[in-house]
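note to self — DONT lose this again. spent like an hour looking for the file last time. sequence + predicted structure for the chain T wanted, 108 res
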Amino acid sequence: MSKRVSIKKGDQVIVISGDEKSKKGKVISVDPKSSTAIVEGLNMVTKHRKPRGQRDMGGIIHQEAPIRTSKLMHICDKCKSPTRVGYSVLEDGTKVRVCKKCGETFES
């Protein structure tokens, strides 16, 4: 059973709590099952990778770790501020995400 997540891939978000508080980034991927998202350039971790074969290089790798979606807030393109995400049904029956502050619809 997957949970409903208002954050989607490609959204611009801001972190509202934790060590990365008030940092902004673009969502790379979302996992609705665990309610986590990977945000570009945020929550960086260091991994020590062992070489796996003759051509494969080992070393220290810096990569993004998942962050809980409850700590992320969507940034509206029109009003340029963090906002909650609402849902609305258009006349043709399609369901869209809308900004709770200005009423603008989000892409995708």
